[in-house]
Amino acid sequence: MTAAHLIVTIAAAVWVGFSAVSMFARAKWVVEPITEYGVPRSWWNWLGTAKAAGAVGLLAGLFWPPIGIAAAIGLVLYFGGALVTVARARSYAHLVFPMLYLAPVVVSVVLLP
Predict the structure, then answer these.
(1) CA distances from 12 to 26, 42, 81, 87, 93 (A)
(2) Which residues 6+ apart lie within 8 Å of 54 measured at CB?
(3) pLDDT level of residue 102 (50, 70, 90 thresholds)
(4) How many angstroms separate the CA atoms of 75 and 72, rounded?
(5) Cβ atoms within 10 Å, residue 101
(6) What span, in angstroms and rounded, lies between the C-alpha atoms of 98 and 84?
(7) Residues 40, 45: Cα–Cα separation, whole Å
(8) Which of 30, 46, 55, 85 is deepest in the core (most CB within 10 A)?
(9) What's the pLDDT at 91?
């Protein structure tokens, strides 16, 4: 494991974990946009759980890489879906936000030794 991979993976996990906590806490900057995008409230806990599981999986992947790869695949699918959801809502100025979470996850996988 390289230092770059370790740093990026931990940063990505913390960043995605922050996103999960923000979802669970119903932070205004999370709730308002997803409501505008048409995401049903009944999905919010499931979406937060998926992000939290992905963050934990990235960290576990530092000890057993297949778990980290599976978590990264799940997070890429998650944030890819978020990009589609934002685009379908025609909120193009907000497309950058899912990308801010997607990018470090992808870099983490790219840096796998």
Answers:
(1) 21, 26, 18, 23, 23
(2) 16, 71, 72, 74, 75, 78, 105
(3) very high
(4) 5
(5) 19
(6) 10
(7) 10
(8) 55
(9) 85
